[in-house]
Write a structure and sequence with these properties.
By secondary structure, the protein is mainly α. It is built from 13 helices and no strands. The structure holds a DNA duplex (13 and 12 nucleotides).
DNA sequence: TGCCAGGCCGGGT
DNA sequence: ACCCGGCATGGC
């Protein structure tokens, strides 16, 4: 009697949670900091992002007003450690320009909008794709949207819950159709997938050492 | 030492 | 609608 994929997904969450415990994400003190982190961490190790954010904080530049006023070349220099600093400086500029245009520079107000509306608004910003938008919505606004990233895809494909090449929206729908729209579970599930992907299910370790212990077949 | 990290865009088929 | 090159630092 085969178990359906929805049940397998919920089972994965339960196993991850009981193995690793709550991750208490996202690292960041304010919604704006979380949004900046979401842009800076695009295809980049978080530890490189932390340094850039700490630097912005130290220089009192971690606000929509400061980033709006700072010349883009200067901003790039301040976020150097995050990598892709020229392109990311432009993206942060696009983001804060959007905030002032749509919401008076106030991210909190934008995030009170309806999920579907605010997601499309965020996606209209040059430099904000689906993962960045969902990260901001889930972790800064506590809205029930699921974040899909490279770890999510790798883990799901290694566990044969989903082929490698499916689209972002297909993976997101798989999670959102299988689980109750619970912000806490979406938050922890994504964070747990990143934790697993980070510590065990990496590219350098094609045989995920934690998975057999968790009762999963990933030959 | 090379390979990898919590993507996304723009130009070309 | 896909496909691909470009973007860049820092750690293992």
């Amino acid at each position: 009697m085969p178990v359906d994929r929805n049940t397998l997904l919920l089972d994965l969450y339960k196993r991850l949670f009981s193995s690793f415990g709550p991750r208490h994400w996202w690292p960041g003190d304010s919604p704006f900091e979380i949004a900046v982190g979401a842009i800076l961490t695009q295809n980049t190790a978080w530890r490189n992002v932390e340094k850039a954010i700490a630097n912005l904080k130290k220089k009192n530049l971690l606000s929509a007003e400061a980033i709006y006023s700072l010349p883009v070349e200067d901003l790039a220099a301040q976020i150097r450690s995050a990598g892709y600093y020229n392109i990311k400086a432009k993206r942060l500029k696009h983001f804060v320009k959007f905030l002032f245009r749509e919401s008076g520079g106030n991210l909190d107000r934008l995030l009170t909008w309806d999920l579907h509306i605010s997601r499309n608004e965020l996606l209209s910003i040059n430099g904000v794709g689906p993962e960045t938008a969902d990260s901001i919505l889930l972790y800064a606004a506590n809205k029930p949207t699921f974040v899909v990233d490279a770890y999510t895809r790798r883990i799901l494909s290694r566990h044969r819950l989903m082929p490698e090449e499916v689209s972002y929206d297909e993976v997101r729908s798989f999670f959102m159709d299988s689980l109750e729209p619970d912000v806490y579970i979406f938050n922890e599930f994504h964070a747990l997938l990143v934790h697993l992907g980070h510590t065990f299910c990496t590219k350098r370790k094609p045989k995920c050492s934690a998975c057999p212990a968790m009762g999963w077949n990933n030959d």
